[in-house]
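WARN no homologs supplied; continuing
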Amino acid sequence: MGAVDIASSVPLQGSYVARRCPVVAQLECDESLDVEEVPLSEAERARVDGGRMYEREVFEALLRHHGDRVVLIEPASKADQQTATAAALQSDVSIVLGSWLPDDHLNRRTGRPDVLVRVGGGWAPVDVKHHGIVSASAEGSELRSELPDPRPEASVEMEGLEPTSHALKDALQLAHYRRLLEAAGLASEQSWGGIIGVDGAVWWCDLAEPRWRKGTRSALEIYDREFDLRLRVIARQMERNNDPTKAPLVIPLRKGECTGCSWRHVCGDRLIRGDSVSLVGGVTWSSALRLTRQGIATRSDLAGLDWSTAAVALGESSTDAKVDLHEVLAICGGLPPATELRDALGGRKRTRLRRLESKGMTTVGDLGALDARTSEIASLRIGHLPSLIDQARAATAGVPFLRRGAELVDVPRADVEVDVDMENSESGVYLWGVRVSRSVRSGTVPGYLPFVRWDPLDDGIEADVFAGFWTWMIDLRDATTADGRTFAAYCYSSAENTKMLRIAAKAITGPTVDEVRQFIASPQWVDLHAVVKSRIITGGGLGLKKVAPLAGFEWRDDDPGGDQSTVWYDRAVNHPDPAVREENRARLLAYNEDDVVATAVIRDWLSTTVFPSIVDAVPPTSPIQVAACTGP
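OK structure emitted
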């Protein structure tokens, strides 16, 4: 590895920098900010604590299995830990725990791999992660070894598996340690890296193998690029600390990891003030980056593009064939305006001719109605541009609209309506909450009813809770229809479907898989999220927590969310203080009740609101401009 052309004043960077957003690296050294990072939420703290506890369990297991062949570096000062690590790596042990590798001052790296495993004449890094590493796959395979012999040479190829969504970030962290080992002359000959996941096995990969980005890049290649970018971002920000007129290398763009980022309040404020295009529903981080580089940096910019031109290029549906407008214009350039497009374009590629004619374009002169800027943007890999333009128009208007082609929101209604929401932990579903509304038969009281158990969850308890809920719901349905009235149950998203089918497939009590399938396929089971998604455009997300406030609903809890509920559940079941257990059980029941009430509020809102059509949305006339991002 050659030296990176970065000032030596840039602080040494640890293993997380390459896997985190480059904006975070910029903000962390921005001396102009008079703000503090957002403290970890209860759920985030619980995950950190769980990860540390799991790491201790893995270390204890390795110490038991390997005795004097393993060394644990005790916590101490950095210098002392590095000295102890150097001594351990030069000894005859085969495993080192809790190491701190020598700093790579030339390339500005420092790092502390959880585990180092001797491989041949060198060492391979292994990290301990409290999450899953692999998932089922039709074709893939992964290498696995066990803690009694964790070496890659002892690994077995496991068929039918592929890496989870965590895998690339984990691999980038391993690549950081690999570069440190190389700089110190301690690396194994082959570029092995391993992760010990929640299953207690070591999953190995060759960090030099091109298995990422559709098989075109290795973890080391991606890491080198990302690490170098962040060094340049930090170096530029250090220059900006002395000279604020210099432009930053990156600007915030919304992405999936923003939700749990400790700088989200800083970036969130900048995104809103800058009207960032990344805030538009359906615009991914990579799409936002491409749009911003082309000058479409705000929601207003995107909303101001010509929908008709985008629809000619990409069709009105995301499944439609694409039409290369650049090719059309090149063919027709210089031809007399009266020339028929059928004659100019010939008989090949009939889709483009039909698409143009559907928009009233039959002659070369008619092509003047196409917007050149929109045509250019349509050629980018950003998704379905017509849909994104509509989303941006809804976002800038600030109100929900009907999608194109939708005349109304058709929500199935019934004489007896039941709203359903489940709560689950890592162990399974412990709560099915229901709310009965509208007129009901005698003996059934409208209101909230939970089916729940507060015992430590196992498959049997999960099945019993589900069977109780299912029996109650089907009995109410049968009694309702026997009275000659209609019945419907409502959920919001398909999560309930997945859980019901999974439980039914394993349980010896309750409904069969076929019974569950028949019910969720019937008109009596309605997914309101699917209704919203097929009919409504909001300009933002369509999750329950996003849509219910549009309908006027607010949760009672100050911090509602699935992540937080996992912490409440752990306290509700395992806390030694009975008062704390009761407090968290009440909090979970109130949260679940609010979820089913929110579902009912959305249903009534959809049924009673006359939504304007997105066709009538007026594009903004004064777009806000922000500087283009020059990130990765």
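The mean pLDDT is 90.
OK
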